[in-house]
Amino acid sequence: MLRKTPLAAALVTIAAVPMAAPLYAQPVAQDAQTAQAAQPATQATPADGAPDIATLPAVTVTGRSDAAADFQPEMSSVGAKVPTALRDIPQAVVVVPKAVLQSQAVSSFSDALRNVPGVTLGAAEGGQIGNNINLRGFTARTDIYLDGFRDRGQYYRDTFNLESIDVLYGPSSLYFGRGSTGGVINQVSKQPNLKPRADVSLQAGTHDRYRTTVDINQPMTDTSAFRINAFGQSLGSTRDEMKNKDYGIAPEVKFGIGTPTQITLSALIQHNRDQPDYGIPPLNGHPAPVDRKTFYGFTDDRTIQDVQTLNARVEHRFNDMFTVRNQTQFSHYSTEARATNAAAVLTGPLGTSTALSNGNYTTLPLSSLYVRLQGKDRNINDHSVYNTTDFQGKFATGFLKHDMLVGVDLSHETYSNQSFTATTPGLPTNTLAIVPLVDPAYTTRPSNYREVATNLAESSANGIGLYLNDTISLGDQWKWIGGVRWDRYEASIHNSINAPGYATQTNYFTSVRTGIVWQPTEWQSYYVSYGTSFNPSLEALTLTNNQQNTPPEKNRSYEIGSKWDLLNGGLSVTQSLFNIEKTNARTQVSTGEYTLDGDVRVRGYQLGVAGHITNKWQVFGGYTYMDGTVEKALDGTAGNTLANTPHNMVTLWSTYNFTPNWEFGGGPSYVSSRYAANNNLVKVGGYTRWDVMAAYHQKRYDIQFNVWNITDKKYYDALIPSDGGRAVPGIGRTFLATLNYRFR
């Protein structure tokens, strides 16, 4: 019997196209006819040879009090800057709707992204704190967006004001400028509307978890409304000493709803006071086998973050053919971090004891090993101003129909990072304490430690991008998407101590994107696409010395895929084969010398499902196979597996309404083994985590129970490449109870 590789199996699956549709159609038809016998069937005109699923009744959800509780998205603006049907975007897109997050009782941005195949979590590294995301093997820390604008602050994002999280895979500099090697992640905020509502949610859980959210929407006139979302929380954890206290508010007002001219003003104000967690050090090539609750730090560590974002959008529709938009966003992010990480593992309790390295292999017992605690203190300030003006035209030239978007992006960003060295007398520089590897005592920082300000990095950048994209329809079945963008990105950095003392660079880059979409019927779509992107040395406004004169890294992506709307449109199934390559990755030749001779490649297969199997049964999930390889490097990592890039990932969430009031659900998250760094010295094992839920729905309220990690599986969540490779343990079994009440 022949054994197919994941890629070969994917090719067979993509090729086996319409024949599967009738097989899936029958269960929904039977269930829908039983539950909705009184409703007329929705008729459609099928193409020749199309499955006879167009005559099925429309799939609806019974027994739900909120019409928005649907797992199946239809539109996204992340792939085209304007709302576009997912089937018309020639790239893989995953939209995680609010309904999925509510069903899972998820509130953090990182937890929400567990629903997205190909996303892995990084963690605090150097000056990087907050959400650190890898997408298809490449860092996406500066590829997180808020309503289409770069949300580059280093903070822990919350979902309280989000309608969805949209993920576009693959290099996409055409729309987003620098970055987007593995893709982009866009947070879509809730919008004011003309339907009054007032919702309150109260949540309590084990390990002292408490959270409250409020969502109020109020029309002011027939064409205007305001909306306010707010949250407050105090969260404990199954990890020792992990306490978070956060709150935020997001007001928004919209004028001209339903008229040719709409004006939207919004803000996001958020405050976080969290306990930083730098995880567990490695030992013998794996995370040290200590209790997962073990915390290496001090009880008075903290990360204090403040976020203020203001957004103004004006949109004018001249007629059905032409629309112009202008949007401006001002953002300020500040971070005061007093953090500690487990640095070197030592063979004794003295500062002069031998430090292990290269995976920390040793035959000594755990009780003989110690850990050096190092300060990671810094004050960070980020400012940014973004402005986008675009013009959309829908018109025809002969038998060709055009949907064209022309625009200009302007940006100004500043960044400062004041770092500190904290040392306790009698210990080596930047060492606060030396503690046992097993059962370290939890105390405040030593009272006699000394802190000295070290390097102050100050940087700024100005950018301009001009872009044009056109979707040309050739009849009803074929679309060609093509676009080009020109960027000028000028950035500079000044270091008070570190080298370089001062550096500046100006990069010019032209990005392209093209794709062909074939839609033989209304329920199936096939595409091929190609896209590029670039990564300047000063992309994140930080710089490693001797990289200031290197040109931008270049990325390119090839993708082929299919998007099906089965079961009378009730269930979306997407598949794609992809190849992403960074053709001139920076690689270190020797100490302090870098060249663009590297080559990094990730290729793989992705499958996604979202929607209804029956009118009572919903699913949302995906699978991805990733083969990430360092193809070429001069630092000894050539041929290694790309860091934090597991070969296999599965996520699945499913719910079923057994009665009009009772709903049950759950599902697994699976991540195969991965390496903490490109040197492949530290390997973290794979895991499967199971979550479950039960909910009782009424017109005015819902009562919901969730259990995260019901089997209490020990696993490692986020990986940190430094100091050999640290790993942050995931949350243990946690029970949550939620009351959602609708006042109107």
From TrEMBL:
<protein>
    <submittedName>
        <fullName>TonB-dependent siderophore receptor</fullName>
    </submittedName>
</protein>
<dbReference type="GO" id="GO:0038023">
    <property type="term" value="F:signaling receptor activity"/>
</dbReference>
<dbReference type="InterPro" id="IPR036942">
    <property type="entry name" value="Beta-barrel_TonB_sf"/>
</dbReference>
<dbReference type="InterPro" id="IPR039426">
    <property type="entry name" value="TonB-dep_rcpt-like"/>
</dbReference>
<feature type="domain" description="TonB-dependent receptor-like beta-barrel">
    <location>
        <begin position="269"/>
        <end position="709"/>
    </location>
</feature>
<feature type="signal peptide">
    <location>
        <begin position="1"/>
        <end position="25"/>
    </location>
</feature>
<keyword id="KW-0472">Membrane</keyword>
<dbReference type="GO" id="GO:0015344">
    <property type="term" value="F:siderophore uptake transmembrane transporter activity"/>
</dbReference>
<keyword id="KW-1134">Transmembrane beta strand</keyword>
<keyword id="KW-0732">Signal</keyword>
<keyword id="KW-0998">Cell outer membrane</keyword>
<dbReference type="Pfam" id="PF07715">
    <property type="entry name" value="Plug"/>
</dbReference>
<dbReference type="GO" id="GO:0009279">
    <property type="term" value="C:cell outer membrane"/>
</dbReference>
<dbReference type="InterPro" id="IPR010105">
    <property type="entry name" value="TonB_sidphr_rcpt"/>
</dbReference>
<keyword id="KW-0798">TonB box</keyword>
<keyword id="KW-0406">Ion transport</keyword>
<dbReference type="InterPro" id="IPR037066">
    <property type="entry name" value="Plug_dom_sf"/>
</dbReference>
<comment type="similarity">
    <text>Belongs to the TonB-dependent receptor family.</text>
</comment>
<dbReference type="InterPro" id="IPR012910">
    <property type="entry name" value="Plug_dom"/>
</dbReference>
<keyword id="KW-0813">Transport</keyword>
<dbReference type="InterPro" id="IPR000531">
    <property type="entry name" value="Beta-barrel_TonB"/>
</dbReference>
<keyword id="KW-0812">Transmembrane</keyword>
<feature type="domain" description="TonB-dependent receptor plug">
    <location>
        <begin position="86"/>
        <end position="184"/>
    </location>
</feature>
<keyword id="KW-0675">Receptor</keyword>
<dbReference type="GO" id="GO:0015891">
    <property type="term" value="P:siderophore transport"/>
</dbReference>
<dbReference type="Pfam" id="PF00593">
    <property type="entry name" value="TonB_dep_Rec_b-barrel"/>
</dbReference>
